[in-house]
Every structure is written in C-alpha cells, then in structure tokens.
User: What shape does this take?
Amino acid sequence: MAFCLAGLAAGLWPQAIYPSRRDVVAAPLPTLQALAAAQALFILLAHPIVLLARAERRRVRRFWPEAVAESAVLLAATVPLYVLCAFLANATLVEVARVCLYLACLWPAAWSAGRLMSSRQAARPAVLAGLLVVAALPAVYYLCREFLIALPVGWLWHLAPAGQAWDLGQPRPAELLGAPAWALAVWPVVAALLGLLSAGGATRIARRGV
Assistant: This one.
C-alpha cells in the first residue's frame, strides 16, 4: 500500500515527477499511470524480497500456494485505488484492463525470483542485482536520451516495468495488449527461466522442510 499511495501522490502532483516541466499537462491527471508504475515496481522489486524474508523466517512449507494467495489479496486491496485513479484520470475500462493484464504478467516473474532466492542462496546477489537494474531502467533511459541522443534507447523504456506500465495507462485507441507486444511477452519468459533455475534446488529445499 505504501507503493500504491506513493503512486497516487505522484499522479496527483505530476509536476514533482516529470523530468521536464514542458511535459506537464493540466488534465487529465496521470493517476492511473503513476499507480500502475508504482505497483510494477513493487511487484518486481519489493515482492520477491518479501517472499524471501518470509521463507527464511517462517520456513514456509508450501511456497507457491502462499505466494499466489498473497498476491490475490494484494490485488483485491488495490481495487478501490484503481477505481479512484481511473476516475481522476478519465480512464476507460480498456485502459484499466490493459494495465491489469500487464501487471498480471509480472507476478509470476516475482514469484519465481523469490523462489529462486529462497532455494539457492548463491543466486541471491545476482537476482537482487538484476531486480535493481530492472527497477533503474527508466533512469538509464533518461540519461541515455539526454547524453546519448543518437542511440536508439526506446527499448529500455518498454523493458522497464515502470516505464511500460506508465505508457499502458495513457489514453490510447481500444487496444488491449498495448505495444510493443514483446514488452508483455518478456515477463512470462523470465518467469519460466527463473522457475527452471529454482527447480534444481527443489529437492534440497524439501529435505530441509522449507
């Protein structure tokens, strides 16, 4: 909820988050975009760490049911905020569904990252570093755009969960998947790869009762 409330505040006062005042518009407020970006950051940056901490502290016996159930509760808790942000942004149902579909593709990657860190201690530094890099991609994009103008860096923004979530919350034609399509497909692939890496440690985890 802290991430979501921070996103709501950023959407209500966009002049505090836009890199240039030239980009600030009076209406509609980018509340849906800011909420989506904040939740994308939570899902891929904070949630895997939460899953790891709980697995270490409570010795969770059934990782996947608890992780999925917790995510469902978190999603239900954010419904009122989505309704409020959509109203303030004059967003349509298609725009809200587009954002929710993208965020739903991020959750499996977060679960797999948390599972990998809890099952393979040696992989934790690499996974944490990867999560931090992914979270920082919007900043990398802006730095490249400002100082390396000739380079095609638009893909960095679409790869960044916060950046793509922000774009999907913008008013667009009635397209459900959004563009580019690979930005949506990449996260189920990442989840599958992380799941395969963590599967190797499943037997060891079962033996010690995690």
